[in-house]
Amino acid sequence: MRLKTSSAGDSVNYRYSGILVHPTSFPSPYGIGDFGKGAYDFIDFLEASGQHLWQILPLNPITSYGNSPYQGFSVFAGEPLLLSPQLLKEQGLLAEEDLRVIPDFDPVRVDYEAVRAYKYPLYRKAYQNFLEGGGTALQEVYDDFCARNEDWLSDYCLYMAIKDEQEGLPWTKWPEALRNLSEKDRAFWTQKLEKEIGYYAFLQFCFRFQWASLKEYANDRGIAIIGDIPIFVSPDGADVWANRELFQVDTKGYPSVVAGVPPDYFSATGQMWGNPLYDWAAHKKDGYRWWIARVRHLLEQADYVRIDHFRGFESYWEIPADAENAITGVWRKGPGEELFRAIHKALGEDLPIFAEDLGLITPEVVRLRDTLGFPGMRVLQFAYDGGESTFLPHQFDTRNCICYTGTHDNNTTVGWYNSAPEYSRDKVRRYMNTDASSISWDFIRICLGTIARYAIFPLQDVLKLGEEARMNVPGVAEGNWAWRYRDGDLNSGMAGGLRQMTELFGR
User: Fold this and answer.
1) 356, 357, 442, 461: which one is catalytic?
2) pLDDT > 70: percent of the chain
3) CA neighbor of 258 nearest in space, from 325, 197, 183
4) What pLDDT score does 134 carry?
5) 409 catalytic, yes or no?
6) Within 13 Å and on the Cβ side, how many CA atoms surround 249?
7) Residue 11 resides in a domain
8) How many domains does the chain have?
């Protein structure tokens, strides 16, 4: 579902707003938010509060190293932990007794290891029941899913099955024959690990089934979903293993250079992400096939796509793999407009892409973004550090942008305000004409009132939560991506207040 936008003949300036929250944050008795009741309740809240956008983080299966959704085993696959056991039961894949004993999970923090220990055995039971005919009604749909997604599913499932056989080792530490599968060896391992491969295909089928149902529920209520594409991929994943000719890695899979960013607002030494960099010449040679498939796939999952680190398509920060930090990197030219023209030509439609254009943005990056017509980001928390920031609402120079109170990488607005220097807090109070007693809603009101076509705010700001509810601290490896809210935290009074404010500003 795509929302209307203004055109030359329109008399209406279409304006939209919505909420940023990842499914892991939803209430659920199973230790982590999922695609069950908590997700549907949230969509009902969006509708009641007059919102038309729901922004999420990447849905790919996380590698468990820090549990970041920006590090996944595949950019095409979905995270199994998001599956709802209750929905599996309703499909006949689990029994009531399977869900009778549930650990006493923390309702406001995700303990990923504890959740894995609980959920993975349930998924094994569900798969066994499926094989034994418990999901007979799903078999035809499952077969169709496998056939339609063969181009990525077979690589991913074989990769995960071999990874299990290799006791979880990164593929760079596998035996040579497994790192570089010959056609004969691939046939051998596919046969040997047939049941395990089927298990991973089953999980992806369940993921697609549950997510598609949830997306349809949202779209039917006038709510569009903004997905997220991390620009880079995990070094330990099926993407590099199966397509290493498209990445700057050696025959063993080790990169000589890795991705990151130079020193910026978030870190004085920059950020060294460790992701392998693309061989853009190789991508160009085959017509950007892999990227076209990736964007097509994401646009089946979501209505819009936010591309993380958009500036990397103009120029990216290349860091020696053995460097201590990101300071010693250099800028290299990216594929630029050519890549997106190829995607546009292949998909045959205007690309509903939002550009994450934060950080060190040059005129060349701005030119690329505007030439392609992609909305960029304006973050209000960045507006009050002093001077006439371009993030101040009266400095917005275009409607074609997204105004955020903050993002998943920022502190919550309450947390930011409480820790900001007094000159920033003073400017906020004077600019917003407020006593700051409800500062996050002050930010939401200003965000809604800007000329930006899209206004988005994290759910933590709606709930007026402090630093304890922060989703991520960039450059910090542990303790992120764990925040959850409780069942009952969202209520009709909150929805009514947000709806009134949203309608006041014509969204």
Assistant:
1) 356
2) 98
3) 325
4) 62
5) yes
6) 27
7) no
8) 1
